[in-house]
Amino acid sequence: MVTSGAYPLRRTPTQDRASRQVERILDAACAEVVERGYDAASTSGIAKRAEIAVGSVYRYFPDKRSLIQAIERRNQARYTDAVRERLADVTSWRAAVDVTLDTFREMHRTDPGFRAVVLSGLGDPELEAKPGEFDDQHAGEFAELLAARFGARDSRDFRLAVTLSITMGEALAHLADRLSADEAEYVLDQGRPVLYNLLAPHLPA
């Protein structure tokens, strides 16, 4: 198994056409899982949606689980890029917390890849190379932003507070997205101050 960019692959695409094929396979896998569920989704069904031979799927991905791992890594890259772009003009750390949470919620609602990962049961630690790798990556980037842009005092406790806020924020977003609009607004109104309070001791007043 090799890694090409964000994805673990059996072999690395050497041409743009092959790279586009990998993306098409991942898009087809998202659609297959969202429509049929993870257990019912099949590699042959994914190949049919991608309009390629099933052998072309196996050329890059040994099984369905590795496809979901690749989708999650693509999600992480897309999410990181979107957050980084939206944080460019943010002027307060509390607004930065809001941006990360709102971006996660938006992508979870609009990007089939996020839905596919939830339906596959990403909580299974076997889908991560190491426990918490996706949250840890974003937490590290967010901690560095809070230190560089807003004067956070970097320490072990600060890093733990950021990791906790990221993990709780994602859980909050998942809860809000399965409630009615009024209930979601209540949950978010109650939850955001909790995230702020976790980080406030490490930032200037």
UniProtKB/TrEMBL annotation:
Read off the SUPFAM superfamilies from this record: Homeodomain-like
Q: Which UniProt keywords apply?
A: DNA-binding
UniProt-recorded name of the protein = TetR/AcrR family transcriptional regulator
Source superkingdom: Bacteria
Stretches assigned to the HTH tetR-type domain? 19-79
InterPro entries, alphabetized: DNA-bd_HTH_TetR-type_CS (IPR023772), Homeodomain-like_sf (IPR009057), HTH-type_TetR-like_transc_reg (IPR050109), HTH_TetR (IPR001647), TetR_C_22 (IPR041674)
Q: Which Gene3D superfamilies does the entry mention? A: Tetracycline Repressor, domain 2
Task: Give the DNA-binding residue ranges.
Answer: 42-61
Can you provide one Gene Ontology molecular function annotated for this UniProt record?
A: transcription cis-regulatory region binding
